[in-house]
């Protein structure tokens, strides 16, 4: 049984097509897998007004459940490869989770 | 003069003070959790049935994809990586029961392989919504 706060959920939001890069970085740092969700961004109102065109940037959201021990390593690896300063323009944060089930826990 | 005296004699009624604590300050308020369950595509109905039987008022579904590489898929004998993500808001007590049942559910078959976790909630808008999620009142 998983202890309380033994795991964290890392949420990554990147531009469409960069999820593979995120997962490669995460796996290198010790993560086992993740789940990809397709989403849309909303922050281009100025461009829409200027050019009178509706732009809805496609995004990919990744849920990566990791052990708290490797959280920092995974976040650093993802930020280096797909952070805000990179073409992926990734935003990432982690949430504490409890009652974890379904993972083969060490 | 007589009128003035009459006015002075009028008793001012003290304001009634509501001694009952506010709803959110009551000690019997249960903590709520966002339960997230990620299962292979097609298993969401079975999970929803399990949740409904364990004091879950509403379930929200989303579709996603797994990230397993083709090599791992071959090893695990999995054809596709499509996933169903199910969200529900439940009390801590209900979450304990759900976890017990999910642990069994994930072990029963290869098709049921998935993960689940809870995220603690800090704010909820409205007493009615709280009552709905804790099944104090049926929505």
**What percentage of residues of chain A falls in helices of 4 or more residues?**
25-40%
Low-pLDDT stretches of chain A are none
Structural class of chain A: alpha+beta
* Strand and helix order of chain A: EHEHEHE
Counting structural domains of chain A, the number is: 1
CATH topology of chain A: Alpha-Beta Plaits
How many strand segments of chain B? 4
Q: Sheet with the most strands of chain A?
A: 4 strands, antiparallel
Number of helices of chain B: 5
Overall average pLDDT of chain B? 82
Gyration radius over CA of chain B:
26 Å
Instruction: Describe the largest sheet of chain B.
Output: 4 strands, antiparallel
- Please identify the oligomeric state: heterodimer
Instruction: Work out the helix count of chain A.
Output: 3
Level-1 CATH class name of chain B: Alpha Beta
Description of the structure:
The complex is a heterodimer of chains A (106) and B (139). Chain A is an alpha+beta fold and 106 residues long. Chain A is built from three helices and four strands, in the order E-H-E-H-E-H-E. Chain A has one domain (7-97): 2-Layer Sandwich (Alpha-Beta Plaits), CATH 3.30.70. Helix content of chain A is 30%, strand content 34%. Chain A has a four-stranded antiparallel sheet, covered by helices on one side. The model of chain A has no long low-confidence stretch (mean pLDDT 88). With 139 residues, chain B is of the alpha+beta class. Chain B has a single domain, classed as Alpha-Beta Plaits, CATH 3.30.70. In chain B, strands 2-3-1-4 form a four-stranded antiparallel sheet, covered by helices on one side. Chain A binds chain B through residues 7, 9, 19, 23, 33-38, 62-63, 65, 95-103, and chain B through 33, 35-36, 38, 62-68, 83, 85, 95-96, 98-99, 102-103, 106, 113-120.
């Amino acid at each position: 049984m998983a202890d309380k706060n033994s795991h964290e959920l890392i949420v990554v939001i990147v531009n469409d097509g960069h999820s593979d890069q995120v997962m490669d970085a995460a796996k290198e740092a010790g993560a086992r897998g993740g789940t990809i969700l397709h989403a849309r961004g909303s922050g281009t109102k100025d461009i829409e007004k200027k050019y009178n065109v509706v732009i809805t940037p496609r995004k990919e959201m990744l849920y990566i459940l990791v052990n708290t021990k490797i959280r920092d390593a995974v976040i650093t690896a993802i930020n280096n490869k797909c952070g805000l300063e990179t073409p992926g323009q990734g935003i990432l944060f982690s949430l504490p989770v409890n009652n974890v089930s379904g993972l083969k826990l060490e | 003069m007589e009128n003035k005296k009459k006015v002075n004699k009028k008793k001012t009624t003290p304001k009634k003070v509501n001694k009952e604590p506010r709803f959110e300050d009551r000690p019997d308020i249960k903590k709520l959790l966002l339960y997230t369950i990620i299962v292979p595509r097609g298993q969401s109905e079975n999970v929803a049935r399990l949740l409904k039987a364990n004091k879950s008022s509403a379930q929200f579904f989303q579709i996603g994809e797994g990230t397993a590489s083709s090599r791992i898929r071959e090893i695990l004998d999995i054809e596709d990586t499509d996933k169903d993500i199910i969200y529900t808001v439940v009390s801590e007590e209900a979450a304990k029961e759900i976890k017990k049942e999910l642990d069994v559910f994930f072990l029963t078959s290869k098709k049921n392989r998935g993960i689940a976790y809870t995220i603690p909630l800090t704010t909820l808008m409205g007493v009615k919504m709280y009552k709905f999620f804790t099944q104090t009142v049926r929505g």
